[in-house]
Amino acid sequence: QVQLVESGGGLVQPGGSLRLSCAASGFTFSSYAMSWVRQAPGKGLEWVSDVNSGGGSTYYGDSVKGRFTVSRDNAKNTLYLQMNSLKPEDTAVYYCAKEGTGAGYDYWGQGTQVTVSS
User: Positive or negative CA dihedral for 116, 91, 57, 96?
Assistant: First the structure.
């Protein structure tokens, strides 16, 4: 069965960095685009970043562009999100999601909490 397991979240001061990981299993990881999506307290889901199946094309939301970097290691079936220059407004639960064969996502991880606070 498909599993997506995020890790790497935590408490960090403004201006700090974190690296999130998403370990994937149960499907051919290298065949699918992957995404990061976040949900801040009391708010809806916000798309953060996409990476295509090969890792050569990446896309970012305006709020994180220039600060976050998405990457993947298809040999390790792992998706990453390097987050630099973190701001309090980046506080959220971060989810990795697998793009489905149609539109949208068909599987999500359980999420990892990122808190940016002094």
Answer: positive
Instruction: Report which DSSP code applies to 110.
Output: -
C-alpha distance from residue 32 to each of 35, 42, 54, 88, 105 (Å): 10, 30, 8, 31, 11
Q: What is the pLDDT of residues 10-68, one digit of tens each?
A: 999 999 999 999 999 999 999 999 999 999 999 999 999 999 999 999 999 999 999 99
Q: Which one, of 73, 60, 78, 102, lies nearest residue 8 by Cα?
A: 78
Distances (CA, A) of 110 to 6, 75, 107: 7, 22, 10
